[in-house]
Each structure stands twice: as C-alpha cells, then as structure tokens.
Amino acid sequence: MNLNTTMTTEYKTYINPNHNDVDGKTDRGMRKDNPIFKTLGYIDELNSFLGTIKNRKNDDGVVDAIQIQLLKISSLFSYYSLHTTDVKNYINLIADWTSLMDSEIEIISSNLKINSFIIPKSKFHYARCLARRVERKTISFFEKQTMHEESFYVFKNNVLAYFNRLSLYLFYLALSI
Hints:
Layout: E1 5-7, E2 12-14, H1 35-52, H2 62-82, H3 88-110, H4 123-143, H5 150-176
Antiparallel strand pairs: 1-2
Helix pairs in contact: 1-2, 1-4, 3-5, 4-5
C-alpha cells in the first residue's frame, strides 16, 4: 500500500506529501475548522467511543453494524463536500438503517416499563449523549449549506432521522443490558 494514497470505496483522495500541516488548512486548501470537518470529527468521536463498548453482553454485533454505518455516512459527507452529483443509491441505505432501528426500538421498548427518569448506568448512555451531539452538530452543518439538489435534501433528511433514531436506539440498548 502506498502511504501517500488513501482509498475509499467510491473515490480517491490523494494526500500531498509536500503539504506542510502548520497553516491550518488541508492539502486541498480547505480550512481545518470548516463545518464539514467539525461534523466528521463528532461522528468520528461517537464511532471511536462505540469501539470501547464492543462485545459487551447482548451486543450481537450491533455496535459493529453501527460503526460501519457511521463510516459510510462520514464518507457520504466527504463526498458531498467534494462533489455535487446524485448518490441516491447510497443515501437510501441510511433510510433503511433508520427503519431497522425503528423496528428494534419497538421490540426493545415493548419489553421495558419506564416510569421515571433514568440514571445513566452504562457506556451506552454516554454513547447516546454523543449521538445527540452529532445530531445537533449535523443540524448546524446543514443550515450552513447552499446545495439545492434534490439528492442533497434527501441526504439531509435521512441523516438527521438516522442520528435522531440512533440516540434513541442507544438509549434502549442501555436499558436492555
């Protein structure tokens, strides 16, 4: 593998070996405090934390699946920051994941009785808080965008619904452990 080249499944991003990393910009000239990088950073923080709670009791590979979903969503954010073409096939996956979480939430919640506030007791509660923060930061990111393609609006709505359900799903996972 060439250390100067990074590959993703859909496009290539080349790392400039001559770029000095002290000017606060990427090798493509984008500022590192650009909203896209902030959003990607919060998604990465959530994904990294989920890695610390893998293989716990009753996990059944759920955390792995969520981590893969977060990586794919991050790649779509990156794609939209570089391209403006239609990627509906990938965007529809996010809606499918959200529907699956809705089904799981229904199953888990039907077996639980919540009569009062819940005192957080597991790392899933913290993961839920991180997912809520990602949702808020994602809303801020989308408010600053000026793209008007239909696929971008579908992406926006699907991503916001996904993070909203993800935080609820993590809440119910925390209660079911």
